[in-house]
Amino acid sequence: MAGTIILTGANSSLGTPAVEHLIQNYGDYTAILTVRDASDADVNTNRLRQVISQYPRAKAYIYALDLSSLSATHAFTREIASEITNGRYPRLSAIICNAYYWNLVGDPELTADGFDKTMQVNHISHASLVLQLLGSFGIDGRIILLSSDSRWPGKNPMEKYPPSIPDDLSLLVRPDVDDDKQGRGYQRYATSKLAIVTWMYALNRYLQKDPNLNKVTTVAINPGNMVDSRALRSNTPISMHRMQTWVYKPLLPLLQLMTPTLRSAAPAGVDVIELAISPTYAGQQGFFTLLQKDESSPESNNEVKQESLWKQTLQWAQVTQENTALRTTFK
Ligand SMILES: NC(=O)c1ccc[n+]([C@@H]2O[C@H](COP(=O)([O-])OP(=O)(O)OC[C@H]3O[C@@H](n4cnc5c(N)ncnc54)[C@H](OP(=O)(O)O)[C@@H]3O)[C@@H](O)[C@H]2O)c1
């Protein structure tokens, strides 16, 4: 039986076409779609609803989930786990951690949980969601983490300060403040995308060692830089809005000749669904650029860093042996 797919940030530039591809091509699956604001006031959620409404047989359900709140994330995972246990939804086939946050025009923001918002939305809450829902998978499953070329120092022209995983991990959740809002905001984003990938390697190791979960595998994907994404207009300087309108979108065919990973959001959404469901990618793990296996980055391959970030993430995400099915990490 086709299972349940959870997609966070389902009303995003990548998310909405991903949902349409899922409904059109894998209609047997149940889609649990999370959005930060599920109200009718949210134009992007309304657009998502419109897409779903074109397919009356779609098994797609929208949930509000603010990933900047750990209590909201824990409440959501408890609710979904219970709906799967009581048979309302089939067991999980995939979790796609797609939502993200950045702020290139402001100082670091601390959430009510006391963490930098960029790190909490992009890494900590997704880790919490994944770990708490492992017991809701069927016999196998896939976890897809959205990363970016920003994870690898020097790969993205927006980088001014390289991302890194410091020895003092508290700096990831309480970063220093200085006057360079754009440069530091981008660094916080890039660091969160590096953190996700670094954490993925430890997650795969612990999953493989667990006899009940060793058919669940995790992939991190750089979906390419999406010239029509609203990311370029969210918490960004006006110069980026202009670049999107006057350069990236109209000149895409030309720019692609130099940078083939530049594209629009719709094909990226298709790729992410294929990675999560298609038999072609069954059992895959590790890093992908678009749909090709790729190197992640030198730092993300450092096993000492992977392990220290893994342990720290369990604490940040408030995951204990009481709320995850993963046994191997608590031995
Ligand atoms: N855009 C690119 O060029 C690019 C390049 C490489 C990688 N990626 C990755 O691809 C993924 C999708 O990117 P995109 O361009 O489609 O993003 P996007 O259109 O900017 O959408 C971002 C999504 O994240 C959600 N979000 C933000 N804060 C949230 C919170 N506190 N709780 C829950 N959801 C929250 C947003 O909801 P609201 O609108 O309601 O806040 C929205 O659904 C991201 O993980 C991104 O890092 C993107």
Task: Give the helices and strands, then pairings.
Layout (H helix, E strand, L loop, with lengths): L3 E4 L7 H11 L4 E6 L7 H11 L6 E5 L5 H16 L6 E6 L19 H17 L3 E10 L23 H4 L7 H29 L6 E7 L2 E2 L11 H11 L3 H7 L3 E2 L1 H13 L8 E4 L2 E2 L9 H14 L15
Parallel strand pairs: 1-2, 1-4, 2-3, 4-5, 5-6, 6-9, 7-8
Antiparallel strand pairs: 9-10
Helix pairs in contact: 1-2, 1-9, 3-4, 4-6, 6-10
Bound molecules: NADP nicotinamide-adenine-dinucleotide phosphate.
Relative strand content:
5-15%
Q: Which range best describes the helical content: under 10%, 10-25%, 25-40%, 40-55%, 55-70% or over 70%?
A: 40-55%
Structural class estimated from helices and strands: alpha/beta
Spatial strand sequence of the major β-sheet: 3-2-1-4-5-6-9-10
List key phrases describing it:
331 residues; two-stranded parallel sheet; 10 strands; globular; binds NADP nicotinamide-adenine-dinucleotide phosphate; alpha/beta; Rossmann fold; eight-stranded mixed sheet; single chain
Could you characterize what this model shows?
The protein has 331 residues and is α/β, with parallel strands linked by helices. The protein has one domain: NAD(P)-binding Rossmann-like Domain (Rossmann fold, 3-Layer(aba) Sandwich). It is built from ten helices and ten strands. The strands form two sheets. Strands 3-2-1-4-5-6-9-10 form an eight-stranded mixed sheet, sandwiched between helices. A two-stranded parallel ribbon has the order 7-8. Helix 1 runs parallel beside helix 2 and helix 6 crosses helix 10. The longest helix is centred in the middle third of the chain and has 29 residues. 48% of the residues are buried.
